Amino acid sequence: MYKINTNYQKLPGSYLFSNIAKKVSAFSEANPQADIIRLGIGDVTQPIAPAMVAAMHKAVDEMADAATFRGYAPDLGYDFLREAIVSHDYQARGCDIHADEIFVSDGAKSDSGNIQEIFSQDNRIAVCDPVYPVYVDSNVMAGRTGEYNPQTQMWSNVIYMPCTAENHFVPEFPKENPDIIYLCLPNNPTGTTLTRDQLQEWVDYANKIGAVIIYDAAYEAYISESNVAHTIYECEGAKECAIEIRSFSKNAGFTGVRLGFTVVPKELVCDGVSLNSMWARRHGTKFNGAPYIIQRAGEAVYSAEGQAQVKEQVGYYMNNAHTIYTGLKEAGYEVYGGVNAPYIWLKTPDHMTSWDFFDFLLEKANVVGTPGSGFGPSGEGYFRLTAFGSHENSVRALERIKAL
Amino acid sequence: MYKINTNYQKLPGSYLFSNIAKKVSAFSEANPQADIIRLGIGDVTQPIAPAMVAAMHKAVDEMADAATFRGYAPDLGYDFLREAIVSHDYQARGCDIHADEIFVSDGAKSDSGNIQEIFSQDNRIAVCDPVYPVYVDSNVMAGRTGEYNPQTQMWSNVIYMPCTAENHFVPEFPKENPDIIYLCLPNNPTGTTLTRDQLQEWVDYANKIGAVIIYDAAYEAYISESNVAHTIYECEGAKECAIEIRSFSKNAGFTGVRLGFTVVPKELVCDGVSLNSMWARRHGTKFNGAPYIIQRAGEAVYSAEGQAQVKEQVGYYMNNAHTIYTGLKEAGYEVYGGVNAPYIWLKTPDHMTSWDFFDFLLEKANVVGTPGSGFGPSGEGYFRLTAFGSHENSVRALERIKAL
Q: Are B253 and B44 in contact (CB under 8 A)?
């Protein structure tokens, strides 16, 4: 008789955003006249910009012609895209990363969920708290996280690194040594980040204790301050301890287009085994490449036109971030983030819980946000609003919140 | 200090098709004048047909317009595609499968590699021998297969079910009970399949011993005989024991487009836990949906135009299969497959090993095939040719082989 992976049953409830969707849908049914503004899920709303659209049309036409048709893509990605990534995202920043260290994928969610597979089951993970839920959930499924305590909302074998207003959202080195450290910077959901010098301390720490850092830089395009690193490889020694995960979802609006990549430097070696080779083997066995059409769209992101259009789109969302941030401040809220990230993180008023504030905002202002507690126990009492809506809706949402 | 997943080190050598690519590339460098015909890797060569091209162009335009832009797709796939799948592939065949049992993905390779995750580590798997290598390799990575014996080329904890000319490529029920049974039908690489009645016996067997069947039906579109099932759900009791994996790669030529789906019936319950819910959770946590543009292309496959064009393309390849099959017969080879599948499986002449025949064919005829031993120990002494080349090349390859 076959047996299931019982780790799945340990996962409490369903995925955060499904819960929100259900609540909103129930409210909407009960109040069909309500004009709901959604600043909850971190999904973009601006259309794909012209350079990427042109590249996709051209690639579709190539697929329609026997002379230019492409079958299976190289497992690790087309050279044209890997070379563009290396040149613009790394070598232009003085980081010595090469094309054979880039693994093109269908997105950062897949990569950040799958990357744990190349590590043994008895590694202990550390995560910032609050953070994007996929890191912990994928490790729960793999059986690395111990038991869940519904009271504390913590897993017995996960090291939580609280990031709250009290420590200015800068995680402290844990008391016990972790093996795998997940860092999402700029952080989802807090919208805060570390300076390059603070990140260098984490790289030094990881190298000292022999930990590997999984560095999720999905929001890199939103960095506006010069003392913040755009890639962890700006830090010395990072190639010896860090894997970096990147996305095209938030810079180029590819949430529905699906493209990302992971960097596994050749210097990353554990007991004589190259993690680059392991990830290549994983990719080659369980993945068949991202679509040609989509990889051409990714290449176009790095063209002069594409870069200008992407910059304009990021500027549009960051203008929303500014609107939301300053509006909340004016309304008397305690507010964080929004400077190097498209997320605004606010302290709920009057010690409301995150979910109470969710209900309050949905009912009184018809605005959907994301409860901070959904991202980890230290997110309790906080709330996330995203800048990914339209400007008009960002302005309207803040008018309603101010009027409460 | 972090630790790697040491199961990866147990994997012998690299992936079959990478090895072939390296050999061909070395031969090509040494013999730059050689006109190599590739009938090795199972990749299609015909361009994407007009209905699917039109659907992709339209979807790209929708993504370019704020009014019709789509962000994150539903994790499990758009309803328009899931409904089309259910209606054409299941309900039209009298199978009572519903849209919420369909999980759209980026392809059958990902799904067949990932599906083992929802089962516990102490399940014992059974595979046909020879077969597509991903089933075994993904279980090696998960630590289910025991130790590898380089002499027998077998894993100590895998049940091999030989499919050879001696048993007419019909696997026998194993002596020891397996927990998870992988069936790829029509089979890659042998091109042979089971009749509906023979498949029914496997469903009955699985239900009797409490095993789950992972049914890979990637080559379903090539079935030409009426006594062969197009889906395992044509068999009674299959919804209680079988997961079906399907692909758009071989029917619609989507190898470089990337689309597939997996069917997990609601009736599939183990110890009170729904496998459908488990796979939904896996999809929701580690996958972010297939691209909207690609899902629209998948929908177009089911349109009247799309169906006609796909049928024509399948016919084109099956004509190649006939050319290769009859040509080999005329040249005196012992030949199998090619009737319900685009693969032709031949016995190597003069007791040559599979790799020796690979070298022989590459050197003497400049034709690339796939060594049968790459698909499992019982593939030794066999060789696979695919019908996915152009017709001209299929004809030329056979002329060369006949002239040897």
A: yes
Cα–Cα distances in angstroms (integers) from residue B28 to residues A174, B236, B362, B393, in the given order: 55, 51, 10, 18
Interface confidence (ipTM) of the complex: 0.97
Which candidate, A116, A215, A109, places its Cα nearest to that of B141? Answer: A116
Q: Order across the sheet with B343-347: list the strands.
A: B335-337, B343-347, B382-386, B370-371
Which of A288, A294, A309, A388 is best to mutate for the B interface (most B CBs within 10 A)? Answer: A288
pLDDT of A191 strictly over 70: yes
Residue A304: CB partners within 8 Å, gap ≥ 6?
Answer: none
Distances (CA, A) of B233 to A7, B238, B254, B361: 29, 5, 24, 40
Q: B12-46+305-403 — its CATH code?
A: 3.90.1150.10
- Indicate the average pLDDT of chain A: 97
For chain B, which residues make up each domain, given as ranges? Answer: 12-46+305-403, 53-303
The fold adopted by the segment(s) B53-303 is Aspartate Aminotransferase; domain 2 (3.40.640)
Which superfamily is assigned to A7-46+305-403 in CATH? Aspartate Aminotransferase, domain 1 (3.90.1150.10)
- Average the pLDDT over A348-367 and give the result: 97
If you write DSSP's letter for every residue of B29-96 in order, what string do you get?
Answer: HH-TT---EE--S----SPPPHHHHHHHHHHHHHHTSTTT---SPPTT--HHHHHHHIIIIIGGGT--
Q: Which residues of B touch A106 (CB under 8 A)?
A: 106, 258, 287-288
In chain A, what is the greatest distance between 2 CA atoms, to the nearest angstrom? 66
Interface check for A395 against chain B (CB to CB < 8 A): the answer is: no
Q: Which residue has the tokens 């499924």?
A: A141
Strand-pair partners of B125? B158, B180
Contact A3 B119 (CB under 8 A): yes
pLDDT digit string, tens, across residues A220-263: 999 999 999 999 999 999 999 999 999 999 999 999 999 999 99
Taking alpha carbons only, the member of B71, B74, B144 closest to residue B104 is B74
Of residues B62, B87, B124, the one with CA closest to residue B296: B62
CB A288 within 8 A of CB B109: yes
Q: What percent of chain A has pLDDT over 90?
A: 96
Question: Contact at 8 Å (CB) between A86 and A98?
Answer: yes
Type and span of the H or E element at A269: strand A269-270
With a CB-CB cutoff of 8 Å, which residues 175-214 of chain A face chain B? 179-180, 209-212
pLDDT band at B14 (very low <50, low <70, confident <90, very high): low
Q: Does A59 touch chain B (CB under 8 A)?
A: no
d(CA B290, CA A23): 25
- With a cut of 70, say whether residue A14 has pLDDT above it: no
Q: Which of residues 350-389 of B touch A (CB under 8 A)?
A: none
Single-letter amino acid code for the residue at A205: Y
Rounded to whole angstroms, how far apart are CA atoms B325 and B337?
Answer: 8
Cα separation, B354 vs B192, in Å, equals 19
- What is d(CA B328, CA B343) in angstroms, rounded to the nearest whole number? 13
What span, in angstroms and rounded, lies between the C-alpha atoms of B128 and A265? Answer: 38
